[in-house]
């Protein structure tokens, strides 16, 4: 059965929910681990009042027995404390950059509230819960997926691929989930300045997947290519407008001799079970739509938050008279939170590709398939 994740739920409804299908039987669900990820999504400097109202925790509604999966659909819930969907006011002055106008036009509405309820990024809490399950599955095989912040507004961290441990430490130590302490401090100042000026900020996040085995994804069909699947998943995060794998756009300006990763043999077989080494990882761990054994590196660019405390010009949908855009309680910058969401989306895609290659109805069967493949790699 194909691994799939679907979500339901609204910003001010009873909660947000994820249905996860295609998981093998026997995966222990560490809900405390998922709750930590949910807390990371709620945190980060620049978040607004909503995140002080919510204290997210996952409830597993179906699909487990004695704390482990039973080979059926898993249903996860993250309850909303701010559940007042029937009392939310009308949204008649669309915010430029948000779903309001496009949604109102699509559905023939002059009140965009039904659209903003589902279009809100509150839904990403459900993705993080499902991503936590994907991460727990991958961890069973030593695969670690971690997201961090590379840039906020014009402030950029010194760029270097980071290991999972360094990223986890940054999540604990940096208010903006950035591995570069000096850049972190400047990012915080940039966010405070934007807030004082009634403005908002975007930025760049990076997700690193360590120990992904070679052979995930496929060259054989356009929608099976792992880079394409990662790009779609990261681009699906609200406010994400660009995705790169490895060098990404940077590769276009280089000559081939400086863009590709020379191949060698040797090195530590535990770190590189295939026995092949690469001089660099400009490809971001994927060639021909297939993982090559190097860390998978995906980046996403998030635009600035659309809800401005000093709003842009808009038009009232009822009267069609010019009006300032609606002002709502909102984040100034959600790039740190988005790094956690991007991590979840990458984990969901990698877990799906992993279960395609190492299929098994139970975790033990998937492990058998994985271990056979890895020992074949090592034997060559
Ligand atoms: C974690 C996260 C938090 C967000 N918080 C807000 C917010 O508080 N206010 C807002 O206007 N947009 C917020 N956004 C962005 C909007 O959800 C997004 O811009 C909107 O849904 C329109 O989609 P689009 O930007 O992809 O076109 C957030 C996005 C993410 C990923």
- Secondary structure category: alpha+beta
Sequence of strands across the biggest β-sheet: 8-7-9-15-10
CATH superfamily: Chorismate synthase AroC
CATH hierarchy class name: Alpha Beta
End-to-end separation: 31 Å
Fraction of residues in helices?
25-40%
What's the mean pLDDT score?
96
Share of β-strand residues: 15-25%
Helix and strand arrangement:
Blueprint: E1 4-9, E2 15-21, H1 31-42, H2 50-53, E3 58-62, E4 64-65, E5 68-69, E6 74-79, H3 100-107, H4 113-119, H5 124-139, E7 144-152, E8 155-156, H6 164-173, H7 181-196, E9 203-210, H8 226-235, E10 240-245, H9 256-259, E11 263-265, E12 276-278, E13 286-287, E14 290-291, E15 296-302, E16 313-315, E17 322-324, H10 335-357, H11 363-379
Antiparallel strand pairs: 1-2, 2-6, 3-6, 4-5, 7-8, 7-9, 9-15, 10-15, 11-12, 13-14, 16-17
Helix pairs in contact: 1-5, 1-10, 5-10, 8-10
The structure holds flavin mononucleotide (FMN).
